[in-house]
Amino acid sequence: MSVCLTLLATRAGAAEQIVVGHAIDLSGPNGSIGRDYVAGITTYFDSINVKGGINGKKIVYTVRDDRGVAAESARLATSLIQQDRANYLLGAIGAESTQAILAAPAFADSRHVLFAPLTDAFAAPRGRVIFWRPSMERECQFILAYFDKLGLKKVGIVLQDTPQNQKTYQMVAEEVRKRGMSLAGTARVSANIEADAKQLSGSGAKVVLMIADTIGASQFLKAFRKHDASTFVAGTSLINLATLSEIAGARATEWTVFSQVVPNPGSTASRLQSEHIDMMKKFRDEPVSAITLEGFAVAKTLVKAIQMEAGGRGALQTMAASRAPIDIGGMTIMSSDRKSTMSEFVDIALFKRDGRLMY
Q1: Is 164 helix (H, G, I), strand (E, B) or coil?
Q2: Within-domain flag for 31
Q3: Which member of 184, 199, 261, 355 lies 3.0 to 4.6 Å from 203 by CB, making a disulfide possible if both were Cys?
Q4: CA distance 184 to 155
Q5: Contact 181, 205 (CB under 8 A)
Q6: Model confidence pLDDT, tens digit, residues 9-50
Q7: Residue 191: which domain range?
Q8: pTM confidence score
Q9: What is the phi-psi region of residue 327: left when phi exceeds 0, alpha when psi lies from -120 to 50, beta otherwise?
Q10: Strand order in 207-211's β-sheet?
């Protein structure tokens, strides 16, 4: 299935518009995350277009559904480059789809920089991707610091075995050691998850940190709650909470907390947050979420980059080389060759049984 969303009823000449292409999961395993991300991005672009666009050029936001399939991500990104003549490309969900786009010949042979994929940061060839959100390592460090301050020193870890997760695991184990906390035990997401979860429940861990994707985290939580109903279980911001609740059960999600990479989307504490709420009310008939706010912030960042550099596809390259902080309304981000992600912001929220997050 291919879905094309545009912000213009009819297209003007190519010179009079800015085409932003996006291959992302809208109907697959992370479809709810993708739809929220797109809603936030669309909303900000709408707010710019009603004011005349960027330097008189309207933004055409073309979105195609990759269904969470990496090969489809690469195929659709190729089409966006070759057929749609996209000026900018926004990133997919997950490392596999992101790497598939980077490896696609059409992308590799272009001057494109892939912007703001929803994935953990990783080393990319020739700096061809800019990660907006903080790394998973940064999220895990924040979670450990949070529970350390609460005096909960015994940590259990759930590990889904991938090269990137192994790297995060080593960092977490070292962070536990440096903080004077102790590693109570480790459970692996595998065919033995039931036995591992039972063993971890008897380890004395006061908090369990999941280094896993949505399905792996859901399988563990469901198994763990059979033996332990009240130990804190923590996860990172890209775990799909709707899917987690569906697989593990709403009761199992009690006493779970998740790192978040944007401020509370329901608060008006900053200009960015209040703009997001106001524009979502004006242009979308949908509730706000952390992911809609992230999409809104990403779109605002891209627009600022284009405004800073009017040379077309050079805007992201210019921003990547810059070391100047960018204020997007009470949230400051920065891109440079010295760091892998633009934002370092992390917060934490309690996941409630009614499906809402409490910050």
Answers
A1: helix
A2: yes
A3: 184
A4: 5
A5: no
A6: 444 455 689 999 999 999 998 998 999 999 999 999 999 999
A7: 136-260
A8: 0.90
A9: beta
A10: 182-188, 154-159, 207-211, 232-235, 256-260, 347-351, 357-358
